[in-house]
Amino acid sequence: MPIVKPTLLATTTHEWRGGKHIPVSGGCLLVVNHISHVDPLTAAHLVYDHGRLPRYLAKSGLFRGRFMRFFMTAAGQIPVERLSSNATGAFSAAVAAVRAGELVVVYPEGTITRDPGGWPMTGKSGAARIALETGCPVLPVGQWGAQELLAPYAKRPDLFPRKKITMIVGEPLDLADLAAQEHTPAVVAEATSRIMSAITSLVEQVRGETAPTERFDMRAAGLPETGDPYRQGQPGQDHPKESDPR
């Protein structure tokens, strides 16, 4: 944060709402919609401004370079090997972090949204499984603006004029009825649906718009779950320009 916060203050303005819902101590999950590669930085800014230090479930590719591996490990981040059996190790590490009293940030979509309008997509089960296993507070967060600073898969940020980042923290989700049941696939799916619905509602507040009735599903659309879909030339996916509001 000694580097991240001054950089963001120099290049963005921000509006935090609902920060009172972030507990001053104790393990919890922040579940956030994913719109840009700078999302971990803006979420860190939000969390740090409310007296906490975040840990993340971060894709393993970020740990490959020597510098990034040192930075990510020193920051206590948890590598996730997506589409791999090793992802179970990340789940166990996240559960342990929550039980140790840490604040863990999770992007339930698992990747930057592919929805054409930038809305939250269908969610992966990881956040719900962590929540059900630990019984910790789950705080939904809706954000908008980071995609204007760095468009999805763009190579260069758009620094000027300064971009506004808005993040709303919602009230903790009540998943107690689900946590009390056997954690079957149906129960996990219901918890995931509640998480994504809460996030989407907050994004609607930030944007002042109504989200599509049906949530975008990458699998149904035939899109890859990892990598840059634009570079891979998927049908119907035009690469966003760096000024694209998505």
TrEMBL record:
Domain Phospholipid/glycerol acyltransferase residues, every copy: 28-146
InterPro entries the UniProt entry points to: Plipid/glycerol_acylTrfase (IPR002123)
Xref: CDD domains: LPLAT_AGPAT-like
A GO term from the CC aspect: plasma membrane
GO molecular function, one term: 1-acylglycerol-3-phosphate O-acyltransferase activity
Pfam family, one: Acyltransferase
Disordered as annotated region, ranges: 208-246
Keywords: Acyltransferase, Transferase
SUPFAM superfamilies: Glycerol-3-phosphate (1)-acyltransferase (SSF69593)
Acyltransferase recorded as keyword: yes
One of the GO biological process terms: phosphatidic acid biosynthetic process
Protein name, as recorded: Unannotated protein
Organism: freshwater metagenome
